[in-house]
C-alpha cells in the first residue's frame, strides 16, 4: 500500500494538473469566442484570419493577465480598505451592531486570503505572446 504522503502529493499534483487544464480550456474558449465575434467565419483569406486571431489572442491575453495581476495585488490586501469601508457604511444602518477595528478586520481577512491566480496570468501572457507571433505572420502576408 502507498504511503499517505505519496497519496496526498498525487492528489495535489492531479488537482494542479486539472486546474491548469481548466485554465487552458477557458483560454481556448475565450480566444475562439472573441474570434467568432470579430468575424472569424466571415474572414476571406489568410490575412484577414490572421488579423482576427491576433486581435482575439491579444484581447484574451489582456483580460486574463489583468485579472491575474489584480488578484496578485488583492492578495497583498490592497483592496481591504474598500471592503472595510463598505462594511462600516452597512453597520451605520444597524443600531446596535458591533464593528471590529480595521486592524482586526485585516487580520481576519489575512487568515482567509486565497492565493493569487498565477495560472490565469500565465495563460494571459502566453496569449499576448501568441498575438505578437500572429502579428508577425500578418505583417508578412
What would you note in describing this structure?
With 141 residues, this protein is mainly alpha-helical. 78% of the residues lie in helices and 0% in strands. It has one domain. The protein is built from five helices and no strands. Helix 1 (4-37) packs across helix 2 (46-75).
- Unreliable spans are none
- Into how many domains do the coordinates divide? 1
What's the helical proportion of residues?
over 70%
What would you report as the Rg, rounded to the nearest angstrom?
Answer: 22 Å
Distance between the termini: 60 Å
Order of helices and strands: HHHHH
Q: Helical region count?
A: 5
What class, by secondary structure content?
mainly alpha
According to DSSP, the number of beta strands is 0
- What is the overall silhouette? elongated
Mean pLDDT reading: 89
Q: The biggest beta sheet, please?
A: none
Strand content is under 5%
Main attributes?
single chain, 141 residues, mainly alpha, 5 helices, 78% helix, 0% strand, elongated
What's the topology here?
Blueprint: H1 4-37, H2 46-75, H3 80-91, H4 102-112, H5 118-140
Helix pairs in contact: 1-2, 1-5, 2-5
Give a quick precis of the structure.
With 141 residues, the chain is an all-alpha fold. The protein has helices at 4-37, 46-75, 80-91, 102-112, 118-140. The chain has 5 helices and no strands.
Amino acid at each position: 500500500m502507498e504511503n499517505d504522503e505519496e497519496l496526498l502529493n498525487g492528489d495535489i499534483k492531479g488537482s494542479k494538473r486539472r486546474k491548469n487544464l481548466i485554465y487552458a480550456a477557458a483560454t481556448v474558449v475565450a480566444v475562439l469566442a472573441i474570434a467568432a465575434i470579430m468575424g472569424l467565419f466571415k474572414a476571406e483569406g489568410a490575412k484577414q484570419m490572421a488579423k482576427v486571431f491576433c486581435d482575439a489572442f491579444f484581447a484574451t491575453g489582456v483580460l486574463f493577465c489583468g485579472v491575474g495581476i489584480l488578484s496578485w495585488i488583492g492578495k497583498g490586501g490592497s483592496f481591504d480598505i474598500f471592503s472595510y469601508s463598505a462594511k462600516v457604511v452597512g453597520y451605520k444602518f444597524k443600531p446596535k451592531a458591533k464593528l471590529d477595528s480595521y486592524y482586526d478586520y485585516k487580520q481576519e481577512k489575512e487568515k482567509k486570503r486565497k492565493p493569487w491566480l498565477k495560472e490565469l496570468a500565465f495563460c494571459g501572457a502566453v496569449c499576448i505572446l501568441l498575438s505578437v507571433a500572429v502579428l508577425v505572420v500578418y505583417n508578412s502576408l
